Structure formats: C-alpha cells, structure tokens
Automatic annotation (TrEMBL):
Residues 1-169 form the Rho-GAP domain. It comes from Steatornis caripensis. It holds the Pfam family RhoGAP. This is RHG20 protein. Keywords: GTPase activation, Phosphoprotein. GO terms for biological process: regulation of Rho protein signal transduction; signal transduction.
C-alpha cells in the first residue's frame, strides 16, 4: 500500500483528500481481511489511500500512542524548531519499534507527495489536515469544541513533522523505497 502511495501519490491531485468509493473500499477491506490475494495496482489510488487511513485509525491507541498524547500536543508550544525536533525525537524513542518503522515509511511517502505539491495540490498543511486524525487521537472522548482544538493542534504537529521529516527521521527517509 505504502509503495503504491509513494509511486502514485505525488502525481495524484488531492491524494488523501478525495475519498475512494465507499463500496470499493468496503469490498477491498473485506478481501484483505479474508487474506485473499489483492493486486492494489488495479484499484483506484483513492481507494488505497482511504483504506490506508482506515488502517491507521484502527491501530490500537494510535501509531503515535494516545498515552503520549499530551506530550505530542505540547511539542508545538516549545521554543524554536531545534527544541521541537529534539522533543519529537525523544517521543519517537518512546514508541514501539514497529510504530517507528511504519512512521518513517509514512513520512517518506508524505514527504514525496509534498515535494510535488504544485502538481498534486497537497502541501504539508493540506496533507496534515487529511492524515493527522488517523495518526493520533486523545485517549478519552471529549466535547466537539475540545476535539476541534485537538485536531488543529495535531494537524500543526503533523505539518511540522512533514516539513522537517529529513531532520527528524534522517535524510535516508527520501530513499526508503529505493529508486523507482
């Protein structure tokens, strides 16, 4: 899924913003859940992107860990970019290894898409708005106003992560998928 998003995402206008067909998403998810072999290249990239966001939303406790939610949110209140990056790296060190590996690939994809934002209309801000709610959510439900404020804060964090992913995850993030 990520490889396909890495390949096709940068040249797809509105990737992660435009939803895939609900029927196609449901059918593909059922096939994947049943263990059936699926050729994602035959599916709409929007279906793949929608299904990937759904996968992220179903990670128990979120990929960034709801237990660290307050710490993630407070990162953007810190001083300069260097302090923010160091805080983010300390938080990443507290995540399970599988989460860190997946995050590196996710931000490798998002970076590739953002680098061609003039073509696909998905700059770091737009990507963050679309993907942030799938990466972190509060451990308990709250009022719509509090959730709205939370979404703004986590989107700001994800935008910062996209814009600084090479400094946070290392320059090799740009070549995780090899040369295509």
């Amino acid at each position: 899924m990520l490889f396909l998003l890495y390949q096709e995402g940068p040249s797809t206008e509105g990737i992660f913003r435009r939803p895939g067909s609900a029927k196609a998403c449901k059918e593909l998810k059922e096939k994947l859940d049943s263990g059936a072999e699926v050729d994602l290249a035959c599916e709409s990239i929007f279906v793949t992107a929608s299904l990937f966001k759904d996968f992220l939303r179903n990670i128990p406790g979120s990929i960034l860990s709801s237990q660290l939610c307050d710490k993630w949110i407070s990162v953007m209140d810190q001083g300069n970019n260097e302090e923010k990056i160091k805080s983010i790296q300390r938080l990443i060190d507290q995540l399970p290894r599988a989460n860190v590996v997946l995050l590196r690939y996710i931000f490798g994809v998002l970076h590739g898409i953002e680098m061609r934002s003039e073509e696909n209309q998905m700059n770091a801000f737009n990507l963050a708005i679309c993907i942030a709610p799938s990466l972190l959510w509060p451990p308990v439900s709250s009022t719509p106003d509090i959730e709205s404020e939370f979404t703004k804060k986590i989107s700001s964090l994800v935008q910062f992560l996209i814009e600084n992913c090479c400094r946070i995850f290392g320059e090799e993030i740009t070549s995780l998928f090899g040369e295509i």
